[in-house]
Design goal:
Two copies of one chain form a homodimer. In chain A, 35% of the residues lie in helices and 20% in strands. With 347 residues, chain A is α/β, with parallel strands linked by helices. Chain A has two domains: 156 residues, 2-Layer Sandwich (Nucleotidyltransferase, domain 5), CATH 3.30.420; 160 residues, Nucleotidyltransferase, domain 5 (2-Layer Sandwich). Chains A, B: Belongs to the ROK (NagC/XylR) family.
Chain lengths: 347, 347
């Protein structure tokens, strides 16, 4: 299962990230009547790396850290604990300054009990792992909360967006993760929407074509079969050692007609995901994230063009201004780690 | 536009509806520290009738009323005012006992300003009508709120369901209205979800078949073309003077093979609407309402069967227990009027 060992690619940095300078401050340590808000740490634990962020009491990112993931339960906990200590040290504070730690994990998470199941990417295969409790013990009792990776990404994107001052209104968005699969996290009216069974935002398995290809979920024609990294890789396998989306967009840009068709179809399917999110939840923003979103503005342009194209035939869709709702996930901060840190405040 | 005049079919009744006996009481007048909660009235204003309900401070339905709708702005306001006065009188209280009045209206509602547009069914065609303000004036200053008809239905269903004690948890549901068209209202984590542009729950216009029939919205293969009263009427026009859904289900019950096919297709499309709602918002309950839902348990059975059928091919769907989430809208109370009265509390 590929244990990553070294610290060779590790880095940590202390920096006051830009958002703080333009963002709204919600308060500062020691002021006000309530208990002083304190620092929190968030970790975004992925299959290959752990990204960490330290948030100060005002909600600004003070320091970030990046570590390789060590697979398996023991490695995971030791690695997470080390990442917390490192990002705290980078930020010039102490573990005892922390109000809490939030973790974002791919897998089935029970946020109430702090347990994780089937986090196959992390080498946690079968048993339920009481991750929050074990990490809290490892950190001398700091409260720890665990959340689904898409949920922390949505919370992080909402936090960054709201503080960017771009929009005077409350936090309201879907984080649309174009990763290997397709799924989303939802923050509605300022609150994380988990759903009755933790399945909110599982739009990848909405069937959209009765004659479409079989899906691994057992259904047919699921949206994920058209709008995901896996779908792109199948339609345009990488030939030159770069990720499939990059090669596809390069070929389309160079005028390859087949590539243009595949790209347009992908953009149209991603636009369908945006439309689906708005027609069900009417989120104010749809934030494109996940591996495929590393394409950046080229992807954004293609999806917005597809949305405008679809709106041409439907005044109803036009009135929803779908293209204007879409944006790219922030890249100047590790947005999922920031979201985990925001949730750590509520621990 | 068919002005209904008479009171011939009108009725009003004073009754303590059953829910109160099993429901949880949230408080009662005069107790507690805050200001005493007071009575509210809700009206569900439809194209042919106005249903009204008086809620007491504990949230129980005290009295209900049913009046014919008078079309056009003036008639609408006078009729609504009369319905409020009548349901209040039926309940043995005074206008001055009201904390507020809530209205549920089909059409484009701005709940912030209390205005209504394009309520064509009510003879309000063009201009923006400041309904809340005008009705409030007519009632001597009682605060009035206006809300979309699906939203009040969802709030009412959540109120009734929560008080029925069937489920210990918070209010969390979609009210799936199988009317002429297809749309839903959402109460998520106990709060009405309107969405950024009031479009939350507009699932009727999610395309689900690229080769499907054209939709009036300009798109093709929208879910509404398969799961709505209009879709049923097109597939099985009524021949014997009863509503098309009733005739269809009767024919299917009698063994008509064509009817069985049409019925199964409709049940499957309605099941797709349930699946769509759960895969996006993960609501705990999906409540079937609207005209077609007057079929009652026969409809419920058909939709649940279709959901179980779909779950057979997908362990993922099976894990979501979709069939168990579906239920019929309560019929012992005018659920939309109750929801309007609940919203009237917040006026």
């Amino acid at each position: 299962m590929g244990v990553s060992s070294g610290r060779s690619s590790d880095e940590s940095s202390k920096r006051k990230v830009g958002m703080g300078t333009v963002g709204k401050r919600r308060g500062s340590a020691g002021s006000g009547n309530g208990p002083a808000p304190r620092y929190t740490v968030g970790l975004d634990i992925g299959g290959t790396k752990i990204l960490g962020a330290l948030l100060d009491p005002a909600g600004d990112v003070v320091s970030t850290v990046r570590r390789s993931t060590v697979h398996g339960a023991d490695g995971l906990i030791a690695g997470a604990a080390r990442a917390v200590r490192d990002v705290v040290a980078s930020g010039g504070v102490e573990l005892s300054d922390l109000a809490g730690v939030g973790l974002g994990i791919p897998g089935i998470v029970d946020h109430r009990s702090g347990t994780v199941k089937h986090a196959v990417n992390l080498g946690v295969n079968d048993d339920e792992l009481p991750l929050a409790g074990l990490l809290s013990d490892e950190l001398g009792g700091v409260p720890v909360v665990v959340e689904n990776d898409l949920n922390v990404a949505a919370v992080g994107a909402a936090h960054v967006l709201e503080r960017s001052g771009a929009d005077g209104d409350h936090e309201d968005l879907a984080f649309l993760a174009l990763g290997t699969g397709l799924a989303s996290g939802l923050v509605l009216d300022g609150r994380l929407r988990r759903g009755a069974s933790g399945a909110a935002g599982e739009i990848g398995h909405v069937p959209v074509d009765p004659l479409g290809p079989d899906c691994s979920c057992g259904q047919r024609g699921c949206l994920e079969r058209f709008a995901s990294g896996k779908a792109l890789e199948a339609a345009w396998p990488s030939r030159h050692g770069k990720p499939s989306p990059v090669e596809l967009f390069e070929a389309a840009r160079a005028g390859d007609e087949e590539a243009i068709v595949v790209k347009d179809r992908f953009a149209s399917a991603t636009a369908a995901a945006v439309r689906l999110l708005v027609l069900t939840t009417d989120v104010r923003h749809v934030v494109l994230g996940g591996g495929v979103a590393q394409l950046g503005t080229e992807l954004l342009d293609a999806v917005q063009d597809a949305l405008r194209e679809q709106a041409k035939v439907s005044p109803f869709l036009g009135s929803l201004k779908l293209a204007e709702r879409v944006r790219l996930a922030p890249t100047h901060v590790p947005v999922a780690a920031v979201g985990a840190a925001v949730l750590g405040r509520r621990s």
